[in-house]
Amino acid sequence: MADAEIVFRSGQELATLIKAREVSPVDVVRAYLGRIETLNPGLNAFITVTADHAIARARDAQKEIAAGKYRGPLHGIPYAPKDILATKGIRTTNGSKVTADWVPAYESTITARLNRAGAIMLGKLNLLEFAMGSGVVSGFGPARNPWDPEYAPGGSSSGSGTALAAYMTPLAVGTDTGGSIRNPAAMCGIVGLKQTYGRVSRYGVTTLSWTLDHAGPMTKTVADAAAMLQVIAGPDPKDPTAAREPVPDYSAALTGQVKGLRIGVPTNYFFDEARPELAVSVRAAVEHLKQMGARVIDVEVPHANLAGSAGWIIAMAEGACFHEKRLKEHPELFDPLVRERLEAAKFYPAVDYIKAMRIRTILMDEMRRVFQKCDVMAVPGGGPASRLEPPETARSDVKPGSRSTPVRGGTTFIGDMTGLPAIVIPCGFSAGPPVLPLTIQF
């Protein structure tokens, strides 16, 4: 099979071919490594490419499958994690000069589980520094959007979105504190799943916010996201926040049937925040689901507009605590915007942090009430992407004494604040030029 045929297949399509021995893991890995070699210099999705490691793992997988030791639907399938997940013996930079040479002596639970399932790591993906930088002046430069390299791929899992949209990997891992899986998924036109808080262990994932951090699948298809989540979900003694709830069969739920499904559409905030062409595309998608048999119900989340600002306070206050030692020892190595955000967060009053936590509780209660009326809530997912900022504008322009505008991003932050799962799926394109993806979020 030609390399072009291989890289444009989904992960589960490749799994079927590998299991039937119509294509080998070595052929698959070589095809993706060739595409990375061609495209990564212009798109900067990968910080580190582990070619020798990947080929060796592919050969092992090929031998196992030939011997009848097939491990499951990820066996022989390439993946790439955001470079904030610790990988034993392989450099983990966090997208920062501060930790540019860090080689962990341990493995994150997510990558360990993927490796045990037979998945093959191609390398480590770019990100906004420590999952909160500008994406422009961070340690390894910006990833670029494959739809137009002059446009941003979103953040903070920027490399993950870019690598998937450019077909440099069929599977990727991202992290999400305020939307960092779903934003790049939206800007790059892929599937991004922020699973329920605690569903996936965060052991070995560099912390931004203990309260809000999630890590999960970024893929080309929903079926691939289900297969990935099946492997990485579940309790973990190394992470006390990992839930002990049983892991269901996610793939079995993908029936495509929506008849009778109650879809809640908010009457406040969410569509007001979206660009007009995005709002139109999402409403068209909801109407299509209605024609397929779903019921559309009006719902309201009264304090949704506060999710972004309150979530930002929580994330930055906890981030400042986590990075306090690094800030003292190597302040000059931080992205100026990251340093500014963390230093400023040291001055957040405890009262503001507690108020933000109380807003979190209010949002949890409001969303509980929403889901008494509906099964799923549909809102704009994001897009189209914006142009990459030049470095000189990638910093705060708030002057002393001025009043800053509220932090946006409540449409994604609300999932992190409540711990509820949220998935972003493509649902159209902008008018252009350039033509860019639009997405719906459930």
Which labels suit this protein?
38% helix; 13 strands; 8-stranded mixed beta sheet; 442 residues; alpha/beta
Explain what you see.
The protein is built from 15 helices and 13 strands. It is of the alpha/beta class and 442 residues long. An eight-stranded mixed sheet has the order 3-2-5-7-6-12-13-11, with helices on both faces. Helix 3 (25-43) packs antiparallel against helix 4 (51-66) and helix 11 packs across helix 13. The longest helix has 24 residues, at 350-373.
Radius of gyration: 21 Å
Please report the number of helical segments.
15
**N-to-C span:** 36 Å
Q: What is the assembly state of the chains in this entry?
A: single chain
Nearest-integer average pLDDT:
95
**Model regions low in confidence, pLDDT < 50 over at least 5 residues:** 396-406
Strand proportion, as a percent range, falls in 5-15%
- Class by SSE composition: alpha/beta
Q: Biggest sheet, open or closed, and with what strands and sense?
A: 8 strands, mixed
Give the SSE string: HHHEHEHEEHEHEEHEHHEHHHHEEHEE
Helical coverage, percent range: 25-40%
